[in-house]
Amino acid sequence: MSLIDCPECGGRISDKAVMCPHCGYSPCARWFGGEYRSKAEYLGLPIVHIIMGPGFDPLTGRIRIAKGIIAIGPIAAGGLAVGAVSVGVVSLGGVAAGAFALGGLAVGVILALGGLAVGLVAVGGAAIGYYALGGGAAGVHALGGNASDPQAVRFFKDLFGPDIHPGR
Q1: Cβ atoms of 107 and 121 closer than 8 Å
Q2: For 71-79, what is the mean pLDDT?
Q3: Residue 40, SS3?
């Protein structure tokens, strides 16, 4: 181990140090992404919180969650949440949950769109909902490869227009 000068503050640090003990500079930060948190807040949350890079802090090993009115990151929670895993009023992600959810696995209280969609109105490859539209659809009013409820046909024609054709 040898001592080198910190490129940020000039203090002496170990060549094996993850970060400078004097100023906090970390050469690893550029590989591990960064974070933006707006100073403006609403209801105690930042208006915008963005986490770039992996979903864990390389220095502490803790999970990093973007939390804000608009939250973007590997894991995001907020009014509008965008991330690999997201929870929000409007949620977009690989796994998404919220009032309105869009994702590979989408769970929406009102509307869910995704490969597997679960919600009041669910649209997806596999859809489970009060109104469900999908290759495989299950629900009170289902329309898909396995079901063709007349009320579901009317509902989805009203929602998407007359070009929806069951059984095609």
Answers
A1: no
A2: 94
A3: coil
Check residue 31 and give its pLDDT.
54
pLDDT band at 108 (very low <50, low <70, confident <90, very high): very high
Count other Cβ atoms within 10 Å, centred on residue 55: 18
The pLDDT value given to residue 76: 95
Residue 167 pLDDT > 60:
no
Confidence band of 33 (pLDDT split at 50, 70, 90): low
**Joined tokens for residue 47:** 């208006």
Only one residue has tokens 């869910």, namely: 112
Contact 132, 120 (CB under 8 A): no
- If DSSP codes are grouped into helix, strand and coil, which group holds residue 75? strand
**Distance between CA atoms of 101 and 57, rounded to whole angstroms?**
27
Give yes or no for a contact between 50 and 72, defined as CB atoms under 8 angstroms apart.
yes
Distance CA 32, CA 76 (A): 17
CA distance to 36, 72, 146, per residue, from 47 (Å): 11, 11, 44
Provide the strand spans (E) within the chain: 3-5, 12-14, 35-37, 41-42, 45-46, 48-51, 66-72, 75-138, 141-144
